[in-house]
């Protein structure tokens, strides 16, 4: 049985990946999230190929449960999409509790590497891993410090994994979107309306990411705006980029 696994599948970018994957010749799409009602809605929308799995990826036993299920059902994983993530409020690091920090690292970093380790033995040539990083992975980002650092980890890990798998027929792609309209972005911070330059809906990001993965690319950058910001981050000193970012968000702090 050939399957795809999508984490964070209940909404936003994860849901967009599920929709795109329904167009691929897969026997099942395993949709991982915590919200059982939203998972049930995916199955109601796209039918019996959708397999809802209510798991909290901050818990180590979730990856173990997936591994057991893969072995029991003798699955071949064609796509692994690590889209689950924990965000961070735009604020100084001191406002972030130790518990929040631990959960962010567990979901954004540990779960990504754990699921790659779990799924790789079940993947063959033609298989694709897509790990969701971010435009924020291109440089340090004050006031989104931990989130951006976690996404830099995902980007670096994924591109190195892709290099390790060269010649196997497997690919790993770091997906680096800018602001994505998931319905979860804050409209105001501190009473000030927030502007999100380059804001895009999830569907084109997921569509391009899958195309880039299937073309064997180790990184997917969607929209001219994000490509421009990637170039800026490569050409300018990081201190200059951080200064520019800090000036742009000062009104919200």
From TrEMBL:
Q: Which reaction does it catalyse?
A: 3-hydroxypropanoate + NADP(+) = 3-oxopropanoate + NADPH + H(+); L-allo-threonine + NADP(+) = aminoacetone + CO2 + NADPH
**What Enzyme Commission number(s) apply to this enzyme?**
1.1.1.298, 1.1.1.381
InterPro entries recorded for this chain?
Answer: NAD(P)-bd_dom_sf (IPR036291), Sc_DH/Rdtase_CS (IPR020904), SDR_fam (IPR002347)
Name one molecular function that GO assigns to this entry.
3-hydroxypropionate dehydrogenase (NADP+) activity
Record key words, sorted: Oxidoreductase
* SUPFAM superfamilies given in the database record: NAD(P)-binding Rossmann-fold domains
Check the record and name the PROSITE patterns matching this protein. Answer: ADH_SHORT (PS00061)
Q: What class of enzyme is it?
A: oxidoreductase
Family note: Belongs to the short-chain dehydrogenases/reductases (SDR) family.
What PANTHER family does the database record attribute to this sequence? NADP-DEPENDENT 3-HYDROXY ACID DEHYDROGENASE YDFG (PTHR43086:SF3), VERY-LONG-CHAIN 3-OXOOACYL-COA REDUCTASE (PTHR43086)
The task this protein performs is described as:
NADP-dependent dehydrogenase with broad substrate specificity acting on 3-hydroxy acids. Catalyzes the NADP-dependent oxidation of L-allo-threonine to L-2-amino-3-keto-butyrate, which is spontaneously decarboxylated into aminoacetone. Also acts on D-threonine, L-serine, D-serine, D-3-hydroxyisobutyrate, L-3-hydroxyisobutyrate, D-glycerate and L-glycerate. Able to catalyze the reduction of the malonic semialdehyde to 3-hydroxypropionic acid.
What is the protein's name according to its record?
NADP-dependent 3-hydroxy acid dehydrogenase YdfG
The beginning of the lineage is:
Bacteria, Bacillati, Bacillota, Clostridia, Eubacteriales
């Amino acid at each position: 049985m050939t399957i795809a696994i999508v984490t964070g599948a209940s909404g936003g970018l994860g849901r967009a990946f599920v929709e795109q994957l329904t167009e691929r010749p897969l026997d099942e799409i395993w949709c991982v999230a915590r919200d059982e009602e939203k998972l049930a809605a995916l199955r109601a929308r796209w039918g019996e190929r959708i397999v809802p799995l209510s798991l909290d990826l901050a818990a180590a036993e979730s990856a173990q449960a997936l591994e057991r299920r893969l072995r029991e059902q003798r699955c071949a994983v064609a796509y692994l999409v690590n889209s689950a993530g924990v965000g961070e409020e735009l604020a100084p690091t001191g406002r972030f509790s130790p518990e929040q920090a631990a959960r962010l690292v567990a979901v954004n970093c540990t779960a990504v590497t754990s699921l790659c380790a779990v799924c790789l033995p079940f993947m063959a040539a033609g298989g694709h891993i897509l790990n969701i990083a971010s435009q924020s992975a291109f440089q340090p980002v004050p006031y989104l410090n931990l989130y951006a650092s976690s996404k830099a980890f995902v980007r670096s890990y994924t591109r190195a994994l892709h290099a390790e798998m060269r010649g196997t027929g497997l690919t790993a792609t770091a997906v680096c979107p800018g602001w994505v309209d998931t319905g979860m972005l804050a409209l105001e911070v501190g009473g000030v309306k927030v502007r999100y330059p380059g804001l895009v809906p999830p569907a084109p990001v997921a569509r391009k990411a899958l195309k880039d993965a299937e073309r064997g690319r180790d990184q997917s950058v969607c929209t001219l705006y994000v490509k421009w910001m990637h170039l800026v981050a490569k050409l300018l000193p990081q201190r200059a980029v951080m200064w520019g970012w800090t000036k742009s968000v000062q009104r919200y702090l």
